[in-house]
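ok so I'm stuck.
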Amino acid sequence: MTADTDKDEPIENTEGDETVATDIIDGSLDGYYSDESLDIKPVYPSLDESFDAAVIVTNLPQVAQAKIEKLSKVVTKLFANKKIGALSTTENFNGVHMPFDSTTKKTLGYAFVQYESTLDAKKAVEALNDYPLDKNHTLQVILYNEGMRLRDVPEEFDEPQPEPFVELPNTTSWLTDENQRDEFVIRHGNETEVMWSDGKNDPVMDYDGSRERKANINWCDYYCHWSPLGSFLATLLPQKGVILWGGKEYTKMGRFPTPGVRFIVFSPNEKYMLTSNEDRNDPNAIRVFNVQTGKLLRAFPLFPPDFLSPEQKHALEQGNLDMVPPPPPFQWSFDDSYLARMGKDLISIYETPKMKLLESRSLTAQGIHEFQWCPKGPKNILAYWAPEVGNAPAHVDLIEIPTRKKLRQKNLFNVTKC
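replied:
not stuck anymore, here's the structure
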């Protein structure tokens, strides 16, 4: 009887001030239960078998079993740099795999590195390809998929058809002028005109952008600049970038996308061009291009790291530019081999064409105030001076590049400018 009584009793579920009576016998729980099976199947993400985030590293040293751990640590530290990206690791895999030859008892001289993203893998190729690991080993780094493509290259060579030859304009045609005249460019109002001049007669128009004017295009909006050897005339259009013109007909030789460009500098031999938009908040304010290919080689902020004092940084953030020194300029070596800029107690020297920091470190120049390249070879020599600091006299130093050998130092007394 007790069991029957308990069965007939309703179950009460109290929510706030309301009481809901549910009669199990009457089947009033209908709708509370699902007809779906309780056999829940997990949903896993699809397996990524693309290897898009992997790179192949070749030209590694071939080492014995005893040295594998040491080499692995060096490679892992190099490729796991925070500026590149994070390696994809598991409980039994640190992101780097170096195959081992059981016959020779040595590694095979290459490795596979797995990143968490494709973007990080591409950064690794850009940053570490041609990286000098030591005097005898310069790393070669390519994407894994690119390596597989090279593996599948057919044995029989299918010779590609050459592109039709197109003769480029002669950018030194002005040197063959029959009247032995020189040229100059002048901007007035919205007009940009190139004139012949012999120093005796009135200037004669050579080109004024008439071809572009007919097409409702302005060939110069802001500023124009001759290259050092006179091969190119650069015109600046801040909304578009820099355009190079050359040849007898002033043919467009190249366009370089540099939004807001305000200033350019060619290398002495016209192989490279540096542009600047003078934007103090743009991390890519300064850009370096290969003139022939148009390729962007590297970009820099207007100021080097740690160049400004905390007070100057605060003034820059507040827009008080009177308290902020001008950004240190980049300077080219006489043979286009190096591009250098002064920083705080150092000179950063970048080697062309890769535009990587020479030997991966800056040149220490304690107290440096200014520097210059030697204007003529055969060797690249830097001269810099530093003012008096405390008991240390002002001094001028001559440094040979790339050896960094100090050729001479001259101390100067009672000197504030040099």
